[in-house]
Fold DNA-binding HxlR family transcriptional regulator.
Amino acid sequence: MTEPLDPDMFDPVCPSRLVPLRFGDKWAGMVVRCLEGGPRRFSELRVPLRGVTAKALTKSLRGLERDGYVVRNAHGRRVEYALTPLGRSLLGPLNALCEWAEDHWDEMLDAREAADVR
């Protein structure tokens, strides 16, 4: 059994929301990060992704599955999502991108604030 996901995994002020490169959609990188520790049920994924609607999460999971990053496993009525080997290969680049975002957090926020003022 995997440990429960941290509800504050993606705090609203977390740099993960500012990562400039996205694959799939807004939630894809965060879904991959949630699946890093092992298979998860849909309801488990919604805990740290508290801003996602069921429709948007379904769309994101289907897109990740279509692209070969995630596999959907049905065990009777229980459905879990897990990273494929291809999906796991994204973890290194995703870690590097998150580290970059943390290093440039203030610059990105300043740029966004300046653009919003204009």
